[in-house]
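How it folds:
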Amino acid sequence: MMLRPTLHHIRWACALGLLLGFSACMGAGAMVPDPGESATGEASYYADKFIGRTTASGERYDPEAMTAAHRTLPFGTRVRVTRLSDGRSVVVRINDRGPFVRGRIIDLSHAAARKLGMMREGVVSVSVEVISAGQAGASRVALHHLWALSTRWGRSSPSGAC
């Protein structure tokens, strides 16, 4: 007698497959930059409407923290952002994804933007240099979203997770 998988089992299998695929793409060897790597481009800073919202890493955006958003660097990566016009620099920790505007390579918190003296201009040319790489891997929020997909039809977590 062969057991037929239920919709619940299929959803769990799909979620697990997505998680494993995502983890493989974000594994320890992938996308982890070497200290000293750098790039130049435009920096901007977060709009006030994002204060208190959840970032891609699961943290709440705090305008007074020395944090930033980058499209690909692993969360926890520390970078030195140097304003090209006057050499002012600041060290920030990557905790979000973005910016999603052509030509921009980093979005800074208000505190970091103030230290660079860019609050009036809004967008300035910068160099971004990796100081220390964060941990690559699935973020807590990504795992939560996979869980939500697997339980979309109202099933609860078997262990109370998420």
Observations:
- The chain has a mean pLDDT of 78.
- The first helix runs from residue 7 to 25.
- The helical segments are 7-25, 110-116, 140-150.
- The chain has two domains: 7-26+140-150, 38-132.
